[in-house]
Amino acid sequence: MRNSIVGGNTMNKIVAGLLFGLILGALDGATAWLYPEARPVLTSIMIGSSIKGMIVGLFSGWFARKVQSTRWGIVVGSALGLLFAFLVAIMDATKGQPHYLEIMLPGFVVGAIIGFLTQRIGTRDLANQRTR
Amino acid sequence: MDADTAIGGHGDRFPSTQLSLLEATASGLSSEALDRVITIYWKPVYRFIRLKFHKNNEDAKDLTQGFFATALERDFFARFDPEKAPFRTYLRMAVERFAANQHAAANRQKRGGDIEFETVGEQAVSTDSPEQVFEREWQRQLFCLALDDLRAHSEGCGKQLEFQIFQAYDLAEGEHPSYAELAHQHGVPETSVTNYLAWARRMMRGFVMERLRGTTAGWRELRDEMRRVWS
Amino acid sequence: MELSDSVLDHLRRVAALPDLSGTRYELEGEIGRGGMGIVYDARDRVLDRHVALKVLDLIPAGEAQLIAALEHPAIVPVYEAGTLPDGREFYAMKLIRGARLDQYVARQSTLAERLRLIWRVGEALAYAHSHGIIHRDLKPQNVMVGEFGEIYVMDWGVKAIAGTPAFRAPEIVLDQRSDIYALGALLRFLLPEPNPPALGAIAAKAMSADPAARYPDAPALLADIERFEQGMAVDAWPEPLWHRLRRFASRNSVLLWLLAAYTIAKFVIFFLRKL
Predict the structure, then answer these.
(1) Is B202 within 8 Å of C6 when comparing Cβ atoms?
(2) Chain A: nearest CA to C196, how far in angstroms?
(3) pLDDT tens-digit profile of C113-151?
(4) What is the tally of structural domains in chain C?
């Protein structure tokens, strides 16, 4: 009764994860506009960020279908977010100045948000549902 | 026995299934309704007048007679509204008005110095108000009549033994005898004592209700007044 | 025949007792007096258990048969209905050992517990209404809380009421909506001071003078209470904006914290960069 599903009930969590990942990743990438030196390559940042977000969303969504736990969803999401942000940061570091903090920290939090949202929204794998 | 309060009415007639007060007056049986009222209310009214207006025996008796003779003639029953109060209260208030009028009229003729402090009799309790005495006498009279009915009924259907046992137990002053004693005295088993008492009490209850039915306006008032009798 | 005071009192007491000869019950004592009659504690000789024996004063409640047919955990089961040898109607029902609602709640009681009580009463009401029975005299004195916290609603279908006016709907002809009124009054009775305004509004809506303005049935009222428990907006209360925001914040606190964390992280990075 308490954990009523808010918002779209009809899409499954993987699709939801992809969607959230895309949107949040794009938004996160867009904040790079605040750094003038990043503006020329803003588009590629945003694309990269969106892809990162979608990957995180995909896995988070898959996890959320199997395991129902807001706490663990956040943990998994943030871990994935951190991981992929790290990978992006490494790739970015090879091009010039490292931006580990600027990429990983927000990536970590965005991953947590994606993890949270996939727990809350979308349909679960019914075969795995625990009867309460 | 009280020679002073001999009742003017047909109190010892065995009551048939009685119509309620309103039914009786509606079907033009006012005199019968009046009879029933007098039978039950004569003593309570008498005691009430004595206590409330500090009258001696003779004056109170006169006033009581006067009330029932005159006040009741003037469409008394027709003006009774059961929604406002039970009949018992309505009657008592009419008595108050009547007696107060008479008292005032009588005082105008008095020469003065009529202070009489007289005890009302063995039932006088200094803590009870006249209204409480009135209600108590009403209850007492109801039960007295019901007991008369019960006695007559038991004689009529051959249950004198039952009545005797009932009388020995429930009408005993002070301590009640034990069931065993009664069983032994009357030569019946103890279980019979229990049964006879149950029978007599059931009948008595019925007779009380019948007497009450005749002076109430309908089943709701009857039920409320019944409750007042028990509690 | 003259009766002394003591004999008179004895007779009065004795005449009121129910005559249980011929029944399977033995009188043990008096429990209380209600709207319809007196309730006694009696022992069922056959099943060797105690029952509550309600002896109806005169006119039996016309719905005794219907009420006996109700089966619900919150409605006291009627074991037997019959007529005593003295002509009075009675019914024997389960003897509830517990506390009356007003007494129960006077001891400590959380809001969650009080809402649970309303839930149980509301469910019983919904069940009875679906079977065409109206309570007509719902009030805290007619609700019992049993030894294990179970709820019983008693005294169904009492027609003549000299009862507590605070729980009685203003209209003359009582029907389902009058029960809703009483349920609202019960809710108000149970609410602590100061109360959450949403719950107060639910009670007020149920207690509208106009029956049409009340909830249409018990489930509707309970649904509004459920909305309150879930932190959603309540039908009965048009809430002010700041309260709506507060509620939104508390429901979505995790998300808001995460967004705050993101924003803070961004700011921190930004200013670190500047240094």
Answers:
(1) no
(2) 19
(3) 999 999 999 999 999 999 888 888 899 988 999 888 899
(4) 3
